[in-house]
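step: validate -> pass
step: tokenize input -> pass
step: predict -> running
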Amino acid sequence: MNVRIRVVLLCVAFSYASLLPKQLKAAVLNVPSEYRSIQTAVINSSPNDTIAIAPGVYNESITIFEHSLFIAGVNYLAGDTTQNSLVLLRGPQSFPISRAIRIHLNHSEQVTLAGLTIQDCYGLPSDSGTAIFSDGPSLRLDQVNIRNNQSGIGAVYIQGWETEAVLHSCTFDSNTTTFEVGALAAHVGRVFINMCTFRMNTSMNGAASIGSRTSNFRLQKSVFRRNDSGPLYGAVTLFDGDADTQEGQWIIEGNHFIENVSGVGACLQSHFLDTVHVRDNIFELNSAYRDDAAGAPGYGGALDLVGNDQVRVEGNKFIGNLADYCGAALAVSSDGIIANNQFIGNRAPNLPILIQYRVNGNTSKILFMSNLLRGNKEYLLPGGIRRYSMLMYPGNRGQLEIKECSFEANQGSVVKNGVDSWVIATHNYWGDSSGPFQPETNSAGQGDTLLDTSVPYLPFLRATTFLPSLSVQDTNCDFGALSLGEPASWEWEVINAGVDDLLISLQNQPRPGIWIDIPDTLSIDDLNTSHVSVVCQPREAGILTDTLIFETNDQDHPIIRLYIRAEIQTSSLAPEESMPIKFDVSPVFPNPFNPTATVMVTMPSAGPLLLEAFDLLGRRVALLHHGRSSPGQHRFVFDGSLLPSGLYFIRATTPTDGDRIQKVMLVK
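step: predict -> pass
step: emit ->
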């Protein structure tokens, strides 16, 4: 073959290669630089292409119906996950109403959405998934914000029994539904949710955050805060999606549920599942309310585990949960093990810890082992009638074994033992704060033996010591520089982190020019906070100091001192050499931080100061100060213990100097 023929053949081969199908190599389609709209890019895409979306607001309805795709913000693709709110998908904001993203593919396909925010979508009252509706394929969401959407069922609705839903580091905020499942409805074969945040979602009929019908479910390292599920179900509601197949597993692990509200099972309600593991979670200040007219029964302030084959509740903390009827921590109609948990400060008119009940005529058998119960109490609603005072009740022929538990400073008896139930208690420890069963100090195992059902209650010895706990001890109140006669105020926050009422009384009178807003004896309920105002209006120039002494019933800190200082100037202006010359916020330290950071604000003159913390979505997560501040440098603390890891912004504002902003990274 001569050289000319060889060159011609090579040219033909190259031309043919250029005509090979596009899908052999995934491409990146840029919006809006190459394609004006996201939908246009979808239509012109090939399987497994990436659609890269530049920052902007996109009021369009997107339909994915041909093949797998990866849709992401350009900042996410560049490795910056702090700018997800810059790519904003809102769906059509005028009629005809349509979903923001609609996906219709077969189960072998997969769609990934990343680095986006979908908000302000709405639809007809019967619509589901106004933000995302996915039918058929597997769906993966990474760093996606779903907020302020309205729907009939679920702002995000995913279905497809042969597929999976995977969510990582997503935020669902302030979504509402007219029927049920406020944030995420997932009816697929497998669900995996990791490091997500569900906040202030609401539903009229249950499952404000997650409603899932599946055969395998894992929820871990996520935060659920202030979700309102209405009279039915909890923030998370789980059903068995395929009861006829092999045994499934539902794992709830390492999450934080705080201040969620529902008529039953405020945090989690599981229905007729195979094996449910609830482990290493924190359930704090959640509540189940009772409303007979609305059908809200008022039990299961944290968990309601209904008719499951086996439950394991291990290593959790139940703190300050509330139920208007019973079972502030747990309502259970399943066999299982409840072990190595802490139950602290839970309250209900009846049974603040556990109520067992029957479903479909089936009784439950529970091993309650190696748990700590401290400061759990009954409370009565206005006009309520005390029925019985105890912590647990294995009613409706339930069986309960209590073993190697520690009971400290609780109110009432431990458990009712009646003709319709079976109770055995061995090697427990009663009323001594030193810990679990110890043969040396409780050789008789007092309260461990029930002779017969004529003994109505398992006896309980109440501890004689108080268990309040101050979160602050000796502290300083420094007003800085004040002009003569200029009033200034300072707020002292006192938190009772214990499990009994904290009593504080002032033992001396403040000096002239200082007032403190406190009664003769300040009583702070367990797990509550009080704010005490200190006002300084000096009458003489000079350095003003004082020490206020308080007596408390906290055994560790029976005396606490409040040190007061103010520098009084005869003029309305401080000396020039000591005056700050400008309004400023110093770099926050430490940065990164966990869980607290210090914010230093410099005020050149007295005046109003607003100091706030915001997340990346522009939502205020903390109010650090709101009021008048004196000239000088002021120290504030930003507490991120209840916030997820991420970047936050500290903003200081005055009417005369405007805003000053600092970035701070929370790393847990």
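step: describe -> The chain has a mean pLDDT of 81.
step: cleanup -> pass
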